[in-house]
Amino acid sequence: MPVGDAPVGDTSVAAMLVVRGVSHRFTDHDVIHDVSLTLSSGEIVAIVGPSGCGKTTLLRACAGLVSPSHGTIERHATKIGFVFQEPALLAWRRVEANARLLVDGEHVNGDTDGDGDVIVEQLLAVSGLAEHRHKWPHELSGGMKMRLSLVRTLAAKPQLVLLDEPFGALDQLTRHHLHDEFLRLHAQQRFTALMVTHAIDEAVYLADRVVVMSPAPGRIIAEFEVAQHVPHSPASRESSRRYDPSFAALCGRIAARLGDHS
Asked: N or C, which terminus of the chain has less Cβ within 10 Å?
């Protein structure tokens, strides 16, 4: 393995998601090939790779939305949240009602610990949507819709969160605020997360491990353990880390690895 690569997963901690030898083929072309990946409980893993390399297909397979042509996927979570590239909001529910959708469902089923309302308000505030709580989805900008989609998913406190470029449509300031709030919620809830992103700096800031995929058919060509290169406390990652030389150096190594196969 090249410098900066790391083993797949940490088998000393209970696995929340296990991908074994997964390949997938559409009608006329292969999308991903022989992908194996293990996410330990509480771990955040980011996937980066060139456009069209199968990142979203892999994520959807992990969610059970796509049945892979070969290989197996094991999910050891009873509650899974998915944030799509498109916000997929309910047009007939206002902002606050969309944010509460999954929490309200838990209330109906009697499956709640009572703090869902608090988390909804916390997320609406930090995402800048609190003052827009009575608007309809069609009255929101594209970035606001994506913020609301993220709020709706995290408010339900899933054990496994799958995110498909959830911050891509946001302005930089809002994106950084939500990065920090995402990490604060992770420190509280200790969910496991697998995230697809095109932003290398975002991957390094949020993830414990960054996985690099090759062009299609996508396969894993490298993995980087962030803590080995950018020391931090998992429970408190400060924004100033973005400007640390070691942070920039790791982003550069990941970019170089991507460039080798672009």
From this structure: N
* Distances, alpha carbon 240 to alpha carbons 73, 122, 180, 228, 247, in Å: 37, 23, 11, 18, 10
Which positions ≥6 away from 248 have C-beta within 8 Å?
none
Cα distance between residue 129 and residue 95, in whole Å:
8
Domains of the chain: 1-78+159-262 (3.40.50.300), 92-158 (no CATH)
Cα separation of 36 and 101, whole Å? 34
Tokens (6 digits) for 19: 């991908």
Q: Rounded to an integer, what distance in angstroms lies between the CA atom of residue 256 and that of residue 251?
A: 9
Q: How many CB atoms lie within 10 A of CB 230?
A: 21
Please choose, from the candidates 29, 47, 3, 147, the residue with its C-alpha nearest in 3D space to the C-alpha of residue 89: 147
Rg (CA), the chain: 18
